[in-house]
Every structure is written in structure tokens, then in C-alpha cells.
Amino acid sequence: MPHVRSIPAPLPAAADDKSIDLQEPRSVRYWTETLGVSEEQLHTACEHAGASVEEVRRYLGSNS
């Protein structure tokens, strides 16, 4: 049986791909799936790096 790859949930219509909105559940779900992290890890990364996707990716990369 072939491996089925999970496709991240789409971003909410008002969201963009440059920042993470931790108050929007669909945004949190999208970014946890896209970045391959838990909600807790995403919240921690945003606390340290801010809401910028680029900065969160950098933080996660340096702390893995």
C-alpha cells in the first residue's frame, strides 16, 4: 500500500504566509502541520521568535 502524505489544512482566508496567528485555530493547525511541530512547540517558538514564519523556522531549525 502506498504511503499517503498528509496535506496541511489550508490557511484561513484572511491569513498570510508570512506570520502565524496563534489566536486562529486554523492557522495553528496549518502551521503545526506545515512545520511538523506540536502546538506547544509552535507556541514556544512564537514566544521566542515572534510571529514571523521566517523567524519561527529559524528558531525551530536552531533548536532541533
UniProtKB/TrEMBL annotation:
Descriptive protein name:
DUF3606 domain-containing protein
Give the Pfam families listed for this entry: DUF3606 (PF12244)
